[in-house]
């Protein structure tokens, strides 16, 4: 993947609902109308009562997850906030940065559609959400996309092309090294007492995370047996539910996908 996924949640209590969202009908595409990068956006939401927030900010350097993805966000009207996950694109200053952001955003939305088992009918612009459910009269990101010769339909088509490849969810995502280390550590702490065969599966999964984060792969013990891979996939599934860090979840998904691919288990 072009951009790493990082997590740094908004800390200002006034900008957090702290309520779980129980339904996700749509992924909403926004644009910030500002050249500030994702970290500056995060800083803005950490330093005052903004009465708003968003789940993810994507600039030309990273995909920054700023809210637990299942928390109720405040990025569209009160009605649609209850069943949407929002992504803000920071405004790129040139075509090269826009291209990096576009590719990263296509990969992120592909990943989220795969997680929800949905197609691109799940993706709406803020403009489209406003027309459908009211609440705001914003028209983003139409104007921003037009600056670079793109439309929201172009974006959906790009995601559809990725979905058609039918790759494993998260396979194209780049893991943040810190998230890979955290995921490996959690997994290892649960598997210290494992037998030799299972250790091959743990080792295989850990190395998949290292590869995804572009950190040095450790000694490879071999390809796991199918039943061992299945056991470790179950453990990874449990660990996935135990963390609310999106970047660590991506690492767990990459690990499980690698085990399934290596042993022919279905995704
Ligand atoms: Zn918006």
TrEMBL record:
Domain N-acetylmuramoyl-L-alanine amidase: 14-142
EC code(s) of this entry: 3.5.1.28
UniProt cross-references to Pfam families, sorted A to Z: Amidase_2
Signal peptide: none
Keyword terms: Cell wall biogenesis/degradation, Hydrolase
Catalytic activity annotation: Hydrolyzes the link between N-acetylmuramoyl residues and L-amino acid residues in certain cell-wall glycopeptides
Keyword presence, Phosphoprotein: no
Enzyme type, top EC level: hydrolase
UniProt-recorded name of the protein: N-acetylmuramoyl-L-alanine amidase
The species this protein was found in: Tumebacillus lacus
């Amino acid at each position: 993947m072009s951009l790493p996924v990082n997590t740094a949640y908004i800390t200002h209590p006034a900008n957090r609902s702290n309520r779980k969202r129980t339904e996700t009908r749509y992924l909403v595409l926004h644009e910030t109308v500002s050249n500030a990068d994702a970290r500056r956006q995060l800083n803005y939401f950490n330093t005052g009562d903004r009465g708003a927030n968003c789940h993810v900010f994507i600039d030309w350097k990273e995909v920054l997850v700023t809210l637990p993805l299942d928390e109720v966000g405040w990025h569209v009207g009160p009605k649609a906030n209850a069943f949407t996950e929002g992504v803000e694109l920071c405004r790129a200053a040139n075509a090269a940065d826009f291209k990096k952001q576009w590719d990263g955003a296509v990969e992120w939305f592909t990943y989220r559609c795969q997680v929800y088992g949905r197609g691109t009918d799940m993706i709406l612009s803020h403009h489209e959400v406003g027309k459908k459910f009211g609440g705001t009269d914003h028209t983003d990101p139409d104007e921003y996309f037009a600056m670079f010769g793109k439309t929201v339909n172009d974006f959906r088509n790009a995601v559809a092309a990725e979905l058609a490849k039918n790759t494993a969810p998260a396979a194209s995502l780049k893991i943040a090294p810190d998230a890979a280390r955290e995921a490996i550590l959690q997994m290892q702490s649960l598997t210290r007492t494992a037998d030799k065969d299972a250790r091959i599966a743990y080792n295989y999964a850990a190395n998949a995370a290292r590869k995804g984060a572009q950190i040095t792969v450790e000694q490879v013990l071999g390809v796991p047996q199918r039943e061992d891979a299945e056991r470790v996939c179950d453990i990874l599934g449990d660990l996935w539910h135990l963390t609310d860090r999106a970047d660590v979840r991506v690492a767990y998904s990459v690990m499980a996908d690698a085990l399934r691919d290596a042993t022919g288990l279905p995704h």
